[in-house]
Write a structure and sequence with these properties.
Helix 1 runs antiparallel to helix 2. Strand 1, helix 4 and strand 2 form a beta-alpha-beta unit. Strands 1-2-3-5-4 form a 5-stranded mixed sheet, with helices on one face. The chain is α+β, with helices and mostly antiparallel strands. The protein starts with a helix and ends with a strand. It has 6 helices and 5 strands; from the N terminus they run H-H-H-E-H-E-E-H-H-E-E.
């Protein structure tokens, strides 16, 4: 329901903005350019939202290589954004148990999306550690960070990204820590047991 409403709302705004731009072009080229910029931004946001909804339906059990899948996600989400990313894998890469692989992939996806949507970051660092007894995923950014109050406000307003990360990790028998990064930004660390 929400995405359907959003789609019609964006379509109506696009039409209104296009009309404003067309009327302003001959006499107010600055207003026309600004309006067309808003139209472009709305189109990019709509496309990003559509991609996220499609990704949520994705069957993660078909993913054979977790690091490659997370690299694809971060590359797809940062293309054209100016955000650079680095990825590091420590230990012997291997496929995790199906449930853990699904949890790790979904948590990684959510952490990456949160950086892009909220952090105003210039870079994302992703590190995956395949240890004998557990798997650790760490996603760091150099963005604006957040306070506990901001996190609680987001949760009250229907944004459950960070809460969902914690809950997924605990449900899989692991844990998640989300904290401020010295110098700015956020660190999401998730540890999942190897089964």
């Amino acid at each position: 329901m929400r995405s359907g409403y959003s789609r019609y709302s964006v379509t109506a705004r696009d039409a209104s903005n296009k009309l404003t731009a067309e009327r302003a072009l001959p006499t107010q080229p600055g207003l026309a350019a600004e309006t067309l910029g808003r139209v472009g931004q709305l189109a990019r946001e709509s496309l990003r939202e559509a991609r996220e909804r499609v990704w949520e339906m994705h069957d993660t059990s078909l993913v054979a290589d977790l690091p490659a899948a997370l690299e694809t996600i971060v590359r797809d989400r940062t293309t054209g954004s100016g955000i650079v990313f680095t990825m590091r894998v420590v230990g012997q890469r291997r496929r995790l148990a199906r449930e853990l692989q699904d949890v790790a992939l979904r948590i990684g996806h959510e952490a990456i999306v949160n950086v892009i949507k909220h952090a105003e970051a210039r870079s994302i660092e992703i590190e995956m550690t395949f240890a004998e007894r557990d798997f650790t995923l760490e996603v760091c950014d150099d963005g604006c960070g957040f306070s506990p109050e901001q996190s609680e406000d987001a949760r009250r307003n229907g944004h459950f990204g960070l809460t969902g990360i914690r809950e997924r990790a605990v449900h899989a028998g692991g844990h998640a820590a989300i904290s401020a990064r010295p110098g700015g930004g956020t660190v999401v660390t998730v540890v999942l047991p190897q089964r």
